Structure to design on (1101 residues):
């Protein structure tokens, strides 16, 4: 509930004016609807009474029938306006929320970032955020509009008809809706959580199956994986069926509520007419108003069946949004070489030391190869220099600034790290490169492609429009590696950190690529986590990690 | 999943769009029938009310208890019937969605490669939330349509019985609605289709961006990616609003039609009751009872039409989904050989022969003959087909021509699974499943991976992970270094005790020392008699093999 309220406040904050206007129109729709039906019932019955009494000629038909026309047209127009306003405002607010979630993911701590699975994160951004449109559209705004309408109707019916009828309708609808709403929301949240978990499992397993289908096939596990996907779906549908059962029961309960309130109004009305307390026309007014006021609780039906899904989505999204985005600090300019002074690093999320008391300086224009066996901490050191791994002791400085003191933007301006597993995204070669070079000048792109020995190869295909494929599928391992290198070079950093840059390249190409890198960035300090001879031979000196 | 073999070129008939809905037809019919009966209860309730209010005017004795209890009892019956109708509708929806989903999963498990729009994000969206869009259509459309066929006619008959003038109003205003709806329906369908396509694109884009978060951050491209996403998301919102605008406009117009119809009837009835109009009813003016009855019936005459109009938009969304399903159904890609399921091992020596094998995309593979127990390096420049050769040997692609002999048998859909049961597989870029490391190694067979981890010289790395074998890694091995992930992949290959190992660049990410350890691990397997085929650039590794085959020199 708290989470739902948090989300509603976020939505409201994004689009306050439109939502308030929408809420007012929603109220107008309900009031006009109740007035329309009540007036019509009164009009017909009063007309009949006048006709029977023989005073039909003096009965004012024009004002009531003009009112009927006004209410009918006004209600339709108000409803259209209300729907457009609230939907547009909600969708806009959700877009803001989605952007906020994505921005949050982009600055997540590195250890969390590498474990983020596209499928699950996607669910948060799409399915969960989509589920939240109901918070304003089907829960909060309709409840407010409905309650205000009920209060107004209570006052009007008390004044026009009688207190017992007004009280019966008001108490019936409000208490009934409370009881049904409480019952429905009470049980569905847990079911919804389980259904969501099953849905997540289905999605994650399906995506695993598609991404890893070749590996799974060779391991004879593809059919098992497909069955697992099916199992998750079966579980989800079974839970969904239970949820729908609750939705149906509350739907039937709301329908019965409307009938009971209207029937009761009829009873009280007839009894009062027979006792001579009110005219038949006013009994009709009460009954027709009671029928129309069923509309104040009608949206709750959807809300009740969606409640679990909404509440769960709100809980997850509110949790993610609660983590504040880091402040964008003042950009700090620095120049100069890399200095690593007596640095100790530990394994991720543990106190186990990887290495201790390491010092290393690299001058501008110098290339250093970092060697050491797998697990010695080459990659971790590069991550620490790039500000993605905590420095346990000592300090890493660029010029006179510590990397831990630099804000994200200026750090990235100075330092570019090409990690071992650099990922390409579906699209053309041009799109892959323009990600980092927004001005995206073809000549510049071709120059950098030349540097990494891709020019000839791409010339034979469709040039800059060559498709890269999902996760770089359409390229060979070596081609993909060179394209990610080109992407890093376009950043033109002062300090370039390369983690095994020539992986997947044959010797000749590897050497040419390394020469090209130096040619493109003659003044940059370059640190290479090296595992091949061509890399250590290319460097000005070698630094061995123990 | 059906155990039929679909690895031969797809011969299954492609479904027309409607075929996807067949599993739910029976329940849908029941739902429709119940919905019609539920709607037909209202005239009885209306008659009770008219009888009571009219009776009060004309001074007849009216029992308040009888009227109220009768009204409520009928309402209860209506609620129960509505409940049952929905229940059948939901059952139908679940049957349809389940069948379609099973088909998508089954078919995707057969593909040898991703088809053009079969990105994991698109397929997950199609099999997930898009299929769910069929439910509102299935639940609401058929019952609404059935009610449109019956309820307005019944109310018209009741109107004719009471007053021909009211019937005339119905006859004139009623048909306008379907005509209008047909026009709106066309616009709605187009808008829905646009929106649907946009959802898929956005999902694919997001899945990829989310898998590349680290790169995006290191490249300082957050703002570029965010603004790209914002543009896409705005596009989606505009298309969604386009769909909604059509929906809201049409329901507003319908509401107006209905309101005008009801108002005309109210005015006629009012004047008639006042005695100002002497025509329209059989035998003069309408009675108060008939007047109130007609007024209560009038909104219900239009209601099924309005419900159908609302469901029309569910139909538009569902049609767009069905079209996409059919488009997906038409995508043909190569299939895997065999099912990719568990199987007994193929008999015969672990040998491989390739004769004139050509693959899709014009790749011709070298002819060669590898005997059981031999160790072979496939070398050649990047992009010459080393990986394709390994895939062909594993039966992951269907050759266009030529012959692959494995263990003395031709490699085909019958022998592929038994053959693969003997293969240890080391892909170049491993994908880790969303499960524990233990599951990733053993694939849930309950065995102990310790031995394989030791042989791959990666046991100490695993013990050093925060949760050991229970650690969940990122999709591409996030949480391990490249060399560590590579050795885990080797452990996975060794774990199944293969007698042939196919390794794609097994030493690519490794420093000299670790590369030597992996090479030793592989050679230790070879020493046990395992056939070893490695695709590599690593001269040191290649030198340790019995033989080097240079790929790319194919005729």
């Amino acid at each position: 509930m708290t989470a739902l309220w948090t989300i509603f406040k976020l939505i409201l904050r994004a689009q306050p004016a439109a939502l308030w206007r929408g809420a007012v129109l929603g109220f107008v729709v309900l009031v006009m609807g109740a007035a329309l039906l009540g007036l019509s019932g009164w009009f017909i019955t009063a007309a009949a009474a006048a006709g029977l009494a023989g005073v039909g000629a003096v009965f004012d038909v024009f004002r009531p029938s003009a009112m009927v026309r006004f209410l009918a047209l006004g209600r339709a127009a108000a409803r259209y306006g209300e729907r457009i306003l609230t939907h547009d405002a909600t969708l806009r607010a959700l877009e803001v929320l989605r952007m906020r979630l994505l921005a949050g993911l982009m600055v997540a701590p590195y250890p969390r970032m590498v474990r983020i699975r596209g499928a699950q994160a996607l669910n948060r951004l799409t399915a969960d955020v989509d589920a939240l449109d109901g918070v304003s559209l089907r829960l909060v705004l309709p409840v407010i509009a409905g309650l205000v309408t009920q209060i107004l109707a209570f006052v009007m019916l008390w004044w026009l008809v009688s207190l017992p009828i007004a009280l019966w309708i008001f108490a019936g609808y409000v208490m009934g809706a409370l009881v049904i709403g409480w019952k429905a929301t009470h049980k569905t949240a847990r079911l919804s959580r389980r259904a969501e978990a099953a849905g997540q499992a289905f999605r994650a397993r399906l995506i695993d199956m598609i991404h890893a289908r070749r590996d799974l096939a060779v391991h004879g596990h593809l059919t098992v994986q497909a069955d697992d996907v099916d199992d998750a779906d079966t579980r989800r549908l079974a839970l969904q069926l239970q949820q729908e059962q609750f939705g149906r029961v509350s739907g039937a309960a709301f329908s019965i509520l409307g009938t009971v309130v209207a029937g009761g109004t009829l009873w009280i009305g007839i009894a009062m007419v027979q006792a001579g307390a009110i005219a038949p026309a006013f009994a009709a007014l009460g009954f027709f108003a009671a029928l129309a006021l069923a509309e104040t609780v009608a949206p709750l039906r959807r809300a009740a069946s969606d409640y679990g899904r909404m509440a769960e989505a709100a809980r997850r999204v509110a949790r993610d949004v609660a983590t504040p985005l880091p402040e964008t600090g003042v950009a700090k300019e620095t120049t100069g070489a890399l200095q690593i002074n007596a640095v100790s690093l530990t394994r991720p999320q543990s106190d186990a030391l990887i290495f201790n008391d390491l010092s290393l300086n690299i001058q501008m224009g110098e290339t250093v190869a970092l060697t050491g066996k797998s697990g010695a901490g080459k990659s971790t050191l590069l991550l620490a220099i790039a500000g993605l791994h905590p420095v346990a002791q000592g300090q890493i400085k660029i010029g006179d600034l510590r990397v831990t003191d630099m804000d994200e933007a200026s750090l990235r301006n100075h330092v570019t790290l090409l990690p071992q597993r650099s990922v390409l995204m579906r699209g053309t070669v041009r799109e892959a490169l323009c990600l980092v070079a927004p001005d995206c000048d073809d000549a510049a792109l071709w120059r950098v492609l030349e540097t990494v020995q891709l020019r000839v190869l791409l010339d034979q295909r469709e040039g800059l429009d060559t498709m890269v494929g999902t996760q770089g599928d359409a390229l060979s391992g070596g081609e993909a590696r060179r394209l990610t290198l080109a992407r890093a070079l376009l950043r033109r950093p002062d300090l370039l950190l390369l983690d095994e840059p020539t992986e997947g390249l044959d010797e000749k190409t590897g050497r040419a690529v390394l020469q090209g890198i130096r040619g493109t960035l003659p003044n940059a300090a370059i640190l290479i986590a090296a595992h091949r001879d061509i890399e250590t031979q290319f460097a000005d000196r070698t630094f061995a990690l123990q | 999943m059906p155990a039929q073999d679909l690895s031969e070129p797809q011969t299954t008939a492609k479904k027309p769009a409607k075929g996807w809905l067949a599993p739910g037809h029976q329940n849908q019919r029941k739902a429709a029938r119940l919905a019609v009966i539920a709607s037909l209860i209202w005239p009885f309730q209306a008659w009770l009310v008219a009888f009571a209010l009219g009776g009060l005017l004309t001074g007849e004795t009216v029992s308040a208890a009888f009227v109220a209890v009768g009204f409520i009892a009928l309402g209860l019956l209506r609620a129960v019937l509505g409940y049952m109708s929905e229940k059948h509708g939901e059952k139908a929806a679940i049957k349809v969605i389940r069948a379609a989903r099973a088909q998508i999963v089954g078919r995707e498990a057969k593909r040898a490669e991703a088809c053009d729009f079969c990105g994991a994000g698109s397929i997950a969206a199609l099999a997930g939330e898009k299929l769910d869009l069929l439910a509102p259509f299935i639940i609401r459309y058929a019952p609404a349509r059935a009610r449109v066929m019956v309820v307005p006619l019944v109310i018209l008959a009741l109107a004719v019985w009471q007053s021909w003038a009211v019937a005339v109003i119905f006859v004139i205003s009623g048909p306008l609605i379907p005509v209008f709806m047909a026009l709106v329906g066309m616009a709605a369908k187009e808008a829905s289709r646009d929106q649907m396509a946009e959802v898929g694109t956005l999902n694919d884009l997001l899945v990829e961006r989310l898998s590349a978060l680290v790169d995006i951050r290191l490249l300082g491209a957050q703002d570029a990616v965010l603004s790209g996403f914002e543009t896409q998301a705005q596009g989606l919102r505009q298309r969604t609003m386009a769909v909604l605008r059509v929906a809201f406009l049409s329901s507003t117009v319908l509401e107006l039609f209905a309101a005008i119809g009801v108002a005309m009837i109210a005015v006629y009835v009012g004047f008639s009751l006042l005695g100002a109009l002497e025509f329209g009813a059989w035998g003069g003016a309408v009675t108060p009872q008939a007047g109130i009855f007609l007024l209560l019936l009038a909104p219900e005459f239009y209601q099924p039409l309005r419900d159908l109009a609302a469901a029309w938009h569910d139909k538009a969304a569902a049609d767009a989904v069905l079209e996409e399903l059919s488009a997906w159904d038409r995508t043909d890609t190569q299939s895997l050989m065999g099912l990719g399921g568990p199987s007994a091992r193929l008999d015969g020596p672990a040998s491989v022969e390739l004769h004139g094998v050509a693959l899709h995309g014009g790749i011709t593979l070298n002819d060669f003959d590898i005997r059981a127990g031999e160790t072979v390096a496939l070398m050649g420049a990047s992009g010459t087909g080393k990986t394709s050769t390994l895939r062909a040997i594993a039966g992951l692609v269907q050759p266009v021509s030529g012959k692959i002999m494995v263990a003395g048998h031709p490699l085909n859909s019958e022998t592929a699974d038994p053959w693969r049961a003997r293969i240890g597989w080391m892909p170049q870029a491993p994908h880790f499943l969303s499960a524990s490391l233990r599951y990733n190694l053993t694939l849930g067979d309950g065995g102990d991976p310790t031995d394989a981890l030791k042989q791959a010289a990666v046991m100490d790395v695993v013990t050093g992970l925060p949760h050991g074998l229970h650690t969940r890694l990122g999709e591409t091995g996030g949480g391990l270094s490249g060399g560590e992930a590579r050795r885990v992949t080797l452990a996975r290959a060794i774990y199944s005790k293969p007698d042939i190992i196919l390794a794609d660049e097994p030493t690519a990410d490794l420093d000299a020392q670790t590369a030597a350890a992996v090479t030793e691990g592989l050679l230790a397997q070879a020493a046990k008699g395992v056939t070893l085929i490695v695709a590599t650039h690593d001269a040191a590794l290649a030198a340790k093999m019995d033989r080097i085959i240079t790929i790319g020199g194919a005729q």
User: Anything to note?
Assistant: Chain B has two domains: 17-330, 352-550. The CA atoms of residues 256 and 262 of chain B lie 10 Å apart. Residues 1-13 of chain B have pLDDT under 50 and may be disordered.
